[in-house]
Protein backbone atom coordinates (compact mmCIF):
# COMPACT_ATOMS: atom_id res chain seq x y z
CA UNK A 1 0.00 0.00 0.00
CA UNK A 2 1.30 3.42 -0.91
CA UNK A 3 1.79 6.05 1.73
CA UNK A 4 -0.65 8.28 -0.15
CA UNK A 5 -3.33 5.59 -0.03
CA UNK A 6 -6.71 6.09 1.58
CA UNK A 7 -5.66 4.37 4.81
CA UNK A 8 -2.70 6.75 5.14
CA UNK A 9 -5.00 9.74 4.55
CA UNK A 10 -7.46 8.43 7.15
CA UNK A 11 -4.64 7.82 9.66
CA UNK A 12 -3.32 11.34 9.06
CA UNK A 13 -6.80 12.83 9.53
CA UNK A 14 -7.19 10.80 12.75
CA UNK A 15 -3.86 12.06 14.15
CA UNK A 16 -4.89 15.65 13.33
CA UNK A 17 -8.33 15.14 14.92
CA UNK A 18 -6.71 13.72 18.06
CA UNK A 19 -4.36 16.68 18.37
CA UNK A 20 -7.21 19.14 17.84
CA UNK A 21 -9.59 17.19 20.11
CA UNK A 22 -12.03 16.98 17.17
CA UNK A 23 -14.48 14.39 18.51
CA UNK A 24 -16.87 14.27 15.48
CA UNK A 25 -13.99 13.49 13.10
CA UNK A 26 -12.53 10.90 15.50
CA UNK A 27 -15.96 9.26 15.73
CA UNK A 28 -16.52 8.96 11.97
CA UNK A 29 -12.98 7.65 11.42
CA UNK A 30 -13.54 5.10 14.18
CA UNK A 31 -16.72 3.93 12.45
CA UNK A 32 -14.91 3.60 9.12
CA UNK A 33 -11.98 1.72 10.66
CA UNK A 34 -14.48 -0.60 12.37
CA UNK A 35 -16.23 -1.30 9.03
CA UNK A 36 -12.91 -2.19 7.38
CA UNK A 37 -11.80 -4.33 10.33
CA UNK A 38 -15.14 -6.17 10.36
CA UNK A 39 -14.74 -6.96 6.65
CA UNK A 40 -11.14 -8.13 7.16
CA UNK A 41 -12.23 -10.48 9.97
CA UNK A 42 -15.38 -11.70 8.19
CA UNK A 43 -13.63 -14.64 6.55
CA UNK A 44 -14.45 -13.29 3.09
CA UNK A 45 -10.77 -13.28 2.19
CA UNK A 46 -10.73 -9.48 1.92
CA UNK A 47 -7.33 -7.82 2.13
CA UNK A 48 -6.74 -4.27 3.24
CA UNK A 49 -6.50 -2.10 0.13
CA UNK A 50 -7.72 1.20 -1.24
CA UNK A 51 -10.57 -0.72 -2.89
CA UNK A 52 -11.72 -2.12 0.47
CA UNK A 53 -11.46 1.31 2.09
CA UNK A 54 -13.39 2.90 -0.80
CA UNK A 55 -16.11 0.25 -0.63
CA UNK A 56 -16.41 0.72 3.15
CA UNK A 57 -16.51 4.51 2.86
CA UNK A 58 -19.09 4.33 0.05
CA UNK A 59 -21.27 1.98 2.12
CA UNK A 60 -21.03 4.27 5.14
CA UNK A 61 -21.86 7.33 2.99
CA UNK A 62 -24.91 5.52 1.61
CA UNK A 63 -25.98 4.73 5.19
CA UNK A 64 -25.54 8.42 6.11
CA UNK A 65 -27.68 9.54 3.13
CA UNK A 66 -30.43 7.13 4.21
CA UNK A 67 -30.23 8.41 7.81
CA UNK A 68 -30.45 12.03 6.60
CA UNK A 69 -33.53 11.23 4.50
CA UNK A 70 -35.18 9.61 7.55
CA UNK A 71 -34.28 12.48 9.91
CA UNK A 72 -35.19 15.47 7.73
CA UNK A 73 -38.98 15.11 8.20
CA UNK A 74 -38.53 15.14 12.00
CA UNK A 75 -37.56 18.82 12.00
CA UNK A 76 -36.50 20.31 15.34
CA UNK A 77 -36.47 16.93 17.11
CA UNK A 78 -33.56 15.72 14.98
CA UNK A 79 -31.39 18.82 14.57
CA UNK A 80 -28.32 17.38 16.33
CA UNK A 81 -28.59 13.92 14.77
CA UNK A 82 -29.08 15.48 11.34
CA UNK A 83 -26.03 17.72 11.75
CA UNK A 84 -23.98 14.69 12.81
CA UNK A 85 -25.13 12.59 9.83
CA UNK A 86 -24.42 15.45 7.41
CA UNK A 87 -20.94 15.93 8.91
CA UNK A 88 -20.19 12.21 8.54
CA UNK A 89 -21.42 12.19 4.93
CA UNK A 90 -19.30 15.24 4.11
CA UNK A 91 -16.25 13.56 5.67
CA UNK A 92 -16.80 10.39 3.60
CA UNK A 93 -17.38 12.26 0.34
CA UNK A 94 -13.87 13.71 0.33
CA UNK A 95 -12.53 10.19 -0.34
CA UNK A 96 -15.14 9.12 -2.91
CA UNK A 97 -14.99 9.76 -6.64
CA UNK A 98 -17.07 12.75 -7.68
CA UNK A 99 -20.43 11.87 -9.24
CA UNK A 100 -22.19 13.61 -12.12
CA UNK A 101 -24.86 16.17 -11.19
CA UNK A 102 -28.53 15.78 -12.21
CA UNK A 103 -28.09 17.64 -15.52
CA UNK A 104 -25.02 15.66 -16.61
CA UNK A 105 -26.66 12.40 -15.48
CA UNK A 106 -29.75 13.14 -17.60
CA UNK A 107 -27.55 13.93 -20.62
CA UNK A 108 -25.76 10.59 -20.19
CA UNK A 109 -29.09 8.74 -19.82
CA UNK A 110 -30.41 10.42 -23.01
CA UNK A 111 -27.27 9.44 -24.94
CA UNK A 112 -27.33 5.80 -23.81
CA UNK A 113 -31.08 5.53 -24.51
CA UNK A 114 -30.59 7.00 -28.00
CA UNK A 115 -27.50 4.88 -28.78
CA UNK A 116 -29.36 1.71 -27.83
CA UNK A 117 -32.78 2.54 -29.28
CA UNK A 118 -34.44 2.56 -25.84
CA UNK A 119 -37.63 4.63 -25.98
CA UNK A 120 -40.16 2.75 -23.86
CA UNK A 121 -40.64 2.66 -20.07
CA UNK A 122 -40.77 -1.15 -20.37
CA UNK A 123 -37.06 -0.99 -21.25
CA UNK A 124 -36.15 0.88 -18.05
CA UNK A 125 -34.34 -2.17 -16.63
CA UNK A 126 -32.20 -2.51 -19.74
CA UNK A 127 -31.33 1.20 -19.68
CA UNK A 128 -30.41 1.11 -15.98
CA UNK A 129 -28.36 -2.04 -16.58
CA UNK A 130 -26.34 -0.35 -19.34
CA UNK A 131 -25.86 2.75 -17.18
CA UNK A 132 -24.67 0.84 -14.13
CA UNK A 133 -22.50 -1.56 -16.14
CA UNK A 134 -20.47 1.20 -17.75
CA UNK A 135 -20.87 4.24 -15.50
CA UNK A 136 -21.39 2.93 -11.93
CA UNK A 137 -18.64 5.11 -10.43
CA UNK A 138 -19.71 8.27 -12.26
CA UNK A 139 -23.42 8.38 -11.42
CA UNK A 140 -25.69 8.39 -8.41
CA UNK A 141 -28.18 5.54 -8.84
CA UNK A 142 -31.15 7.55 -7.55
CA UNK A 143 -30.41 10.48 -9.90
CA UNK A 144 -29.98 8.03 -12.78
CA UNK A 145 -33.36 6.40 -12.05
CA UNK A 146 -35.11 9.78 -11.96
CA UNK A 147 -33.39 10.83 -15.20
CA UNK A 148 -34.38 7.54 -16.87
CA UNK A 149 -38.03 8.07 -15.82
CA UNK A 150 -37.90 11.59 -17.29
CA UNK A 151 -36.28 10.47 -20.55
CA UNK A 152 -38.59 7.48 -21.03
CA UNK A 153 -41.68 9.20 -19.62
Question: Can you offer a commentary on this structure?
Answer:
With 153 residues, the chain is mainly alpha-helical. It folds into 2 domains: 6-93, Orthogonal Bundle (Hypothetical Protein Yqey, Chain: A, domain1); 102-152, Arc Repressor Mutant, subunit A (Orthogonal Bundle), CATH 1.10.10. It is built from 7 helices and no strands. The chain has helices at 6-19, 23-41, 50-71, 79-93, 102-115, 124-135, 141-152. The protein is globular. The mean pLDDT is 90.
Task: Tell me the number of helical segments per DSSP (H or I, 4 or more residues long).
Answer: 7
For this structure, what is the CATH class of the largest domain?
A: Mainly Alpha
Rg for CA atoms = 19 Å
How does the helix and strand content classify structurally?
A: mainly alpha
Looking at the structure, what is the overall shape?
Answer: globular
Q: How far apart, in Å, are the first and last alpha carbons?
A: 47 Å
Secondary-structure element pattern, one letter each = HHHHHHH
- The CATH architecture name of the largest domain reads Orthogonal Bundle
Mean pLDDT: 90
Amino acid sequence: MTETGIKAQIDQAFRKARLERDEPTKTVIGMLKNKVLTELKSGSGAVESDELWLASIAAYAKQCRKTIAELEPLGDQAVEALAEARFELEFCEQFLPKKLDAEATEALVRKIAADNGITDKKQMGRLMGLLMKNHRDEIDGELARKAAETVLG
